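Q: For a teaching session next week I want to show students how multiple molecules come together into a single three-dimensional assembly. I've collected the sequence lines for a complex. Could you give me the predicted C-alpha coordinates for the whole thing so I can convert them for display?
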Amino acid sequence: MDNLAKRLEGQFGATLSDHFVKKASYNHSMDCLEYVSVNDITVSDRIDDFLTLIKSYDQSEVVGFKLKGFRYIFKEIIQPICQLDDEDFNPLIDVMKNLFTRVGDDVFVDKEKRTSAYRLAIEITKRDRVNLPDNLNIAA
Amino acid sequence: MLLRKYIVTPSERSKENILSFKELPPPLAPHPKRHGELILLSIGGERVRETAGLGRYNSLFELDYNICGVLPDVNNIGYHEREDNFPDSWGGLKHCHVIFKGIKRPFQEKGLDGSVYVYVASPRYVYKYEPHMVCVAKRIKAPLNAVFATYVKFDHNLDNGEVISWEWVVADKEQPQYPENYANRYDEKVWENG
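A: Of course. Below is the structure for the complete assembly, covering every listed component.
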Protein backbone atom coordinates (compact mmCIF):
# COMPACT_ATOMS: atom_id res chain seq x y z
CA MET A 1 0.00 0.00 0.00
CA ASP A 2 3.09 2.25 -0.08
CA ASN A 3 2.30 3.74 -3.49
CA LEU A 4 -1.27 4.42 -2.51
CA ALA A 5 -0.20 5.99 0.79
CA LYS A 6 2.34 8.23 -0.99
CA ARG A 7 -0.22 9.38 -3.51
CA LEU A 8 -2.87 10.06 -0.88
CA GLU A 9 -0.42 12.13 1.10
CA GLY A 10 1.09 13.94 -1.87
CA GLN A 11 -2.10 14.64 -3.80
CA PHE A 12 -4.70 15.02 -1.06
CA GLY A 13 -2.76 15.58 2.17
CA ALA A 14 -4.37 12.38 3.47
CA THR A 15 -2.83 9.89 5.87
CA LEU A 16 -3.63 6.28 5.08
CA SER A 17 -4.38 4.33 8.23
CA ASP A 18 -2.66 0.93 8.38
CA HIS A 19 -5.81 -0.62 9.81
CA PHE A 20 -9.58 -0.23 9.56
CA VAL A 21 -11.02 2.21 12.09
CA LYS A 22 -14.57 1.69 13.33
CA LYS A 23 -15.56 5.27 14.06
CA ALA A 24 -18.34 7.67 13.13
CA SER A 25 -17.19 10.42 10.80
CA TYR A 26 -18.84 13.60 9.57
CA ASN A 27 -18.53 14.61 5.93
CA HIS A 28 -19.06 18.36 5.47
CA SER A 29 -19.31 18.13 1.67
CA MET A 30 -22.19 15.65 1.90
CA ASP A 31 -23.52 16.91 5.25
CA CYS A 32 -23.83 13.44 6.73
CA LEU A 33 -22.57 11.49 9.68
CA GLU A 34 -21.55 7.94 8.82
CA TYR A 35 -20.68 4.83 10.78
CA VAL A 36 -19.50 1.64 9.07
CA SER A 37 -18.64 -1.46 11.08
CA VAL A 38 -16.90 -3.53 8.38
CA ASN A 39 -13.96 -3.01 6.05
CA ASP A 40 -15.79 -4.28 2.99
CA ILE A 41 -17.71 -3.12 -0.06
CA THR A 42 -21.06 -1.81 1.11
CA VAL A 43 -24.38 -0.85 -0.45
CA SER A 44 -26.40 2.13 0.78
CA ASP A 45 -30.13 1.71 1.24
CA ARG A 46 -31.92 5.06 1.51
CA ILE A 47 -34.72 4.81 4.05
CA ASP A 48 -35.82 8.47 4.00
CA ASP A 49 -34.46 12.03 3.83
CA PHE A 50 -32.59 11.61 7.11
CA LEU A 51 -31.56 7.96 7.36
CA THR A 52 -29.64 5.63 5.06
CA LEU A 53 -28.78 2.11 6.16
CA ILE A 54 -25.45 0.72 5.04
CA LYS A 55 -25.67 -2.91 4.05
CA SER A 56 -23.16 -5.66 3.37
CA TYR A 57 -21.98 -6.49 -0.18
CA ASP A 58 -24.79 -9.05 -0.62
CA GLN A 59 -27.27 -6.76 1.19
CA SER A 60 -28.07 -9.52 3.68
CA GLU A 61 -27.23 -7.52 6.80
CA VAL A 62 -27.04 -3.96 8.02
CA VAL A 63 -23.44 -2.96 8.80
CA GLY A 64 -23.76 0.75 9.38
CA PHE A 65 -25.81 3.88 9.01
CA LYS A 66 -25.75 7.38 7.64
CA LEU A 67 -27.57 10.31 9.26
CA LYS A 68 -28.07 13.21 6.90
CA GLY A 69 -28.58 16.95 7.23
CA PHE A 70 -26.82 17.87 10.49
CA ARG A 71 -25.54 21.17 9.09
CA TYR A 72 -28.95 21.92 7.63
CA ILE A 73 -30.69 21.36 10.97
CA PHE A 74 -28.04 23.47 12.70
CA LYS A 75 -28.39 26.34 10.21
CA GLU A 76 -32.15 26.30 9.80
CA ILE A 77 -33.38 25.29 13.25
CA ILE A 78 -30.79 25.31 16.05
CA GLN A 79 -28.77 28.41 15.11
CA PRO A 80 -31.71 30.88 14.97
CA ILE A 81 -33.26 29.59 18.18
CA CYS A 82 -30.08 29.33 20.22
CA GLN A 83 -28.36 32.28 18.54
CA LEU A 84 -25.20 30.32 17.86
CA ASP A 85 -22.34 31.26 15.53
CA ASP A 86 -21.16 29.21 12.54
CA GLU A 87 -18.06 28.23 14.55
CA ASP A 88 -20.30 26.49 17.09
CA PHE A 89 -21.10 23.77 14.56
CA ASN A 90 -17.75 21.95 14.75
CA PRO A 91 -17.74 21.29 18.53
CA LEU A 92 -21.34 20.17 18.23
CA ILE A 93 -20.52 17.74 15.45
CA ASP A 94 -17.54 16.40 17.45
CA VAL A 95 -19.97 15.51 20.24
CA MET A 96 -22.26 13.85 17.68
CA LYS A 97 -19.35 11.82 16.23
CA ASN A 98 -18.44 10.52 19.69
CA LEU A 99 -22.05 9.80 20.52
CA PHE A 100 -22.74 7.93 17.29
CA THR A 101 -19.49 5.96 17.52
CA ARG A 102 -20.85 4.65 20.83
CA VAL A 103 -24.28 4.03 19.34
CA GLY A 104 -22.69 2.19 16.40
CA ASP A 105 -20.47 0.11 18.66
CA ASP A 106 -23.50 -0.77 20.82
CA VAL A 107 -25.58 -1.80 17.84
CA PHE A 108 -23.01 -3.52 15.63
CA VAL A 109 -20.13 -4.64 17.81
CA ASP A 110 -21.94 -5.56 21.02
CA LYS A 111 -24.66 -7.24 18.94
CA GLU A 112 -22.12 -9.86 17.82
CA LYS A 113 -20.96 -10.39 21.41
CA ARG A 114 -24.53 -10.63 22.70
CA THR A 115 -25.60 -13.02 19.94
CA SER A 116 -22.67 -15.36 20.54
CA ALA A 117 -23.24 -15.22 24.31
CA TYR A 118 -26.91 -16.17 23.85
CA ARG A 119 -25.93 -18.97 21.45
CA LEU A 120 -23.46 -20.30 24.01
CA ALA A 121 -26.11 -20.12 26.74
CA ILE A 122 -28.57 -22.05 24.55
CA GLU A 123 -25.94 -24.70 23.80
CA ILE A 124 -25.20 -25.08 27.50
CA THR A 125 -28.89 -25.44 28.37
CA LYS A 126 -29.27 -28.08 25.67
CA ARG A 127 -26.11 -29.91 26.69
CA ASP A 128 -26.98 -29.90 30.38
CA ARG A 129 -30.70 -30.41 29.71
CA VAL A 130 -31.62 -27.35 31.68
CA ASN A 131 -35.36 -26.71 31.91
CA LEU A 132 -36.11 -23.08 31.23
CA PRO A 133 -39.35 -21.36 32.24
CA ASP A 134 -41.80 -21.14 29.32
CA ASN A 135 -42.04 -17.36 29.55
CA LEU A 136 -38.26 -16.83 29.17
CA ASN A 137 -37.65 -15.40 25.74
CA ILE A 138 -34.07 -15.92 24.54
CA ALA A 139 -33.18 -14.17 21.33
CA ALA A 140 -30.46 -16.02 19.48
CA MET B 1 31.04 20.35 1.37
CA LEU B 2 31.38 17.81 -1.38
CA LEU B 3 29.97 15.07 0.83
CA ARG B 4 26.90 17.14 1.65
CA LYS B 5 25.68 16.57 -1.87
CA TYR B 6 25.32 12.86 -1.26
CA ILE B 7 23.84 12.95 2.20
CA VAL B 8 20.05 12.90 2.22
CA THR B 9 18.67 14.17 5.51
CA PRO B 10 15.53 12.52 6.95
CA SER B 11 13.43 15.59 6.13
CA GLU B 12 14.70 15.59 2.53
CA ARG B 13 14.03 11.88 2.29
CA SER B 14 10.45 12.29 3.42
CA LYS B 15 10.00 15.21 1.02
CA GLU B 16 11.44 13.07 -1.77
CA ASN B 17 9.06 10.24 -0.87
CA ILE B 18 6.04 12.45 -0.98
CA LEU B 19 7.07 13.96 -4.28
CA SER B 20 7.63 10.62 -6.00
CA PHE B 21 4.05 9.51 -6.39
CA LYS B 22 1.92 8.85 -9.41
CA GLU B 23 -0.97 11.31 -9.37
CA LEU B 24 -4.51 10.03 -9.70
CA PRO B 25 -5.80 11.34 -13.05
CA PRO B 26 -8.92 13.55 -12.97
CA PRO B 27 -12.02 11.59 -13.90
CA LEU B 28 -13.50 12.18 -17.34
CA ALA B 29 -17.30 12.25 -17.34
CA PRO B 30 -20.21 13.29 -19.53
CA HIS B 31 -21.20 16.93 -19.13
CA PRO B 32 -24.60 17.10 -17.41
CA LYS B 33 -26.07 19.71 -19.74
CA ARG B 34 -23.90 19.96 -22.87
CA HIS B 35 -24.86 16.75 -24.59
CA GLY B 36 -22.05 14.92 -26.34
CA GLU B 37 -19.38 16.79 -24.37
CA LEU B 38 -17.05 15.28 -21.81
CA ILE B 39 -15.70 17.20 -18.85
CA LEU B 40 -12.69 16.63 -16.57
CA LEU B 41 -13.78 16.69 -12.93
CA SER B 42 -11.62 17.32 -9.89
CA ILE B 43 -11.61 15.16 -6.78
CA GLY B 44 -12.57 16.77 -3.49
CA GLY B 45 -10.04 16.08 -0.77
CA GLU B 46 -12.37 15.82 2.22
CA ARG B 47 -13.89 12.45 1.40
CA VAL B 48 -10.47 11.07 0.42
CA ARG B 49 -8.87 12.19 3.69
CA GLU B 50 -11.77 10.83 5.72
CA THR B 51 -11.73 7.47 3.91
CA ALA B 52 -7.94 7.14 4.12
CA GLY B 53 -7.91 8.05 7.82
CA LEU B 54 -10.45 5.33 8.59
CA GLY B 55 -8.53 2.74 6.53
CA ARG B 56 -11.50 2.12 4.24
CA TYR B 57 -9.39 0.68 1.43
CA ASN B 58 -12.36 -0.59 -0.60
CA SER B 59 -13.70 2.91 -0.90
CA LEU B 60 -10.29 4.16 -2.09
CA PHE B 61 -10.18 1.40 -4.71
CA GLU B 62 -13.63 2.54 -5.89
CA LEU B 63 -12.24 6.03 -6.37
CA ASP B 64 -9.33 4.68 -8.45
CA TYR B 65 -11.18 2.18 -10.59
CA ASN B 66 -14.88 3.07 -10.66
CA ILE B 67 -14.44 6.85 -10.81
CA CYS B 68 -11.01 7.63 -12.28
CA GLY B 69 -10.83 4.50 -14.45
CA VAL B 70 -7.36 3.40 -13.33
CA LEU B 71 -6.22 0.29 -11.50
CA PRO B 72 -5.72 0.55 -7.73
CA ASP B 73 -2.13 1.66 -7.13
CA VAL B 74 -0.97 -1.39 -5.17
CA ASN B 75 1.84 -3.84 -5.78
CA ASN B 76 1.32 -6.69 -8.26
CA ILE B 77 -2.13 -5.54 -9.33
CA GLY B 78 -3.60 -8.16 -11.65
CA TYR B 79 -2.14 -11.06 -9.66
CA HIS B 80 -5.59 -12.41 -8.73
CA GLU B 81 -6.86 -11.88 -12.28
CA ARG B 82 -3.92 -13.55 -14.08
CA GLU B 83 -6.19 -16.28 -15.49
CA ASP B 84 -8.81 -13.78 -16.55
CA ASN B 85 -9.27 -10.87 -18.94
CA PHE B 86 -7.02 -8.20 -17.41
CA PRO B 87 -6.96 -5.25 -17.43
CA ASP B 88 -10.53 -4.49 -18.45
CA SER B 89 -12.12 -1.32 -19.76
CA TRP B 90 -15.09 -1.18 -17.39
CA GLY B 91 -13.65 1.37 -15.00
CA GLY B 92 -14.32 5.08 -14.81
CA LEU B 93 -17.06 7.61 -14.56
CA LYS B 94 -17.09 7.95 -18.34
CA HIS B 95 -19.20 4.76 -18.39
CA CYS B 96 -22.04 6.33 -16.42
CA HIS B 97 -25.40 5.98 -18.13
CA VAL B 98 -27.59 8.55 -16.38
CA ILE B 99 -27.18 11.79 -14.43
CA PHE B 100 -29.71 13.11 -11.91
CA LYS B 101 -29.74 16.58 -10.37
CA GLY B 102 -30.82 17.48 -6.84
CA ILE B 103 -30.68 15.04 -3.94
CA LYS B 104 -33.91 16.23 -2.27
CA ARG B 105 -32.86 16.04 1.34
CA PRO B 106 -31.72 18.34 4.14
CA PHE B 107 -28.29 19.42 2.90
CA GLN B 108 -26.09 22.18 4.36
CA GLU B 109 -28.42 25.14 3.74
CA LYS B 110 -31.83 25.64 2.21
CA GLY B 111 -31.81 25.01 -1.54
CA LEU B 112 -28.27 23.66 -1.78
CA ASP B 113 -29.43 20.05 -2.18
CA GLY B 114 -30.52 21.04 -5.68
CA SER B 115 -26.93 21.77 -6.70
CA VAL B 116 -25.66 18.20 -6.34
CA TYR B 117 -25.45 16.01 -9.45
CA VAL B 118 -25.56 12.22 -9.20
CA TYR B 119 -23.70 10.21 -11.83
CA VAL B 120 -25.01 6.64 -12.00
CA ALA B 121 -23.08 3.73 -13.50
CA SER B 122 -23.38 -0.04 -13.56
CA PRO B 123 -19.75 -1.18 -13.69
CA ARG B 124 -19.18 -4.88 -14.11
CA TYR B 125 -16.43 -5.04 -11.46
CA VAL B 126 -15.15 -3.53 -8.26
CA TYR B 127 -11.84 -4.05 -6.44
CA LYS B 128 -12.04 -5.55 -2.99
CA TYR B 129 -9.39 -5.24 -0.30
CA GLU B 130 -7.91 -8.68 0.30
CA PRO B 131 -5.24 -9.15 2.97
CA HIS B 132 -2.78 -11.07 0.78
CA MET B 133 1.01 -11.35 0.67
CA VAL B 134 1.25 -10.67 -3.08
CA CYS B 135 -1.57 -8.30 -3.93
CA VAL B 136 -4.14 -6.61 -1.67
CA ALA B 137 -6.66 -5.65 -4.37
CA LYS B 138 -8.81 -8.34 -5.96
CA ARG B 139 -11.29 -7.69 -8.75
CA ILE B 140 -14.73 -9.12 -8.02
CA LYS B 141 -18.17 -8.78 -9.58
CA ALA B 142 -20.08 -5.63 -8.69
CA PRO B 143 -22.73 -6.09 -5.98
CA LEU B 144 -26.00 -7.48 -7.32
CA ASN B 145 -29.06 -5.23 -7.44
CA ALA B 146 -26.96 -2.13 -6.93
CA VAL B 147 -25.67 0.78 -9.00
CA PHE B 148 -22.67 3.00 -8.41
CA ALA B 149 -23.49 6.64 -7.58
CA THR B 150 -20.94 9.45 -7.69
CA TYR B 151 -21.90 12.84 -6.23
CA VAL B 152 -20.58 15.90 -8.01
CA LYS B 153 -20.88 19.60 -7.18
CA PHE B 154 -20.59 22.04 -10.07
CA ASP B 155 -19.98 25.77 -10.12
CA HIS B 156 -22.73 28.09 -11.33
CA ASN B 157 -21.80 27.87 -15.04
CA LEU B 158 -21.26 24.11 -14.93
CA ASP B 159 -17.67 24.62 -16.11
CA ASN B 160 -16.02 23.00 -13.08
CA GLY B 161 -17.21 19.99 -11.16
CA GLU B 162 -15.83 18.31 -8.08
CA VAL B 163 -16.43 14.74 -6.96
CA ILE B 164 -17.55 15.04 -3.33
CA SER B 165 -18.59 11.46 -2.56
CA TRP B 166 -19.43 8.05 -3.97
CA GLU B 167 -21.20 4.84 -2.94
CA TRP B 168 -23.04 1.77 -4.15
CA VAL B 169 -26.78 2.24 -3.79
CA VAL B 170 -29.68 -0.21 -4.00
CA ALA B 171 -31.04 -0.39 -7.56
CA ASP B 172 -34.67 0.21 -8.41
CA LYS B 173 -36.66 -3.01 -8.74
CA GLU B 174 -38.48 -1.99 -11.92
CA GLN B 175 -35.72 0.09 -13.51
CA PRO B 176 -32.56 -1.64 -12.26
CA GLN B 177 -30.28 0.79 -14.10
CA TYR B 178 -31.46 3.58 -11.75
CA PRO B 179 -31.19 3.94 -7.96
CA GLU B 180 -34.20 2.72 -5.97
CA ASN B 181 -37.09 5.15 -5.81
CA TYR B 182 -35.26 7.45 -8.26
CA ALA B 183 -38.44 9.30 -9.19
CA ASN B 184 -38.86 10.64 -5.66
CA ARG B 185 -35.29 10.98 -4.45
CA TYR B 186 -33.92 13.33 -7.13
CA ASP B 187 -35.23 16.61 -8.61
CA GLU B 188 -34.74 15.68 -12.25
CA LYS B 189 -32.95 13.48 -14.74
CA VAL B 190 -30.62 15.75 -16.72
CA TRP B 191 -28.78 13.33 -19.00
CA GLU B 192 -29.10 9.76 -20.19
CA ASN B 193 -26.89 7.80 -22.53
CA GLY B 194 -28.56 6.92 -25.81
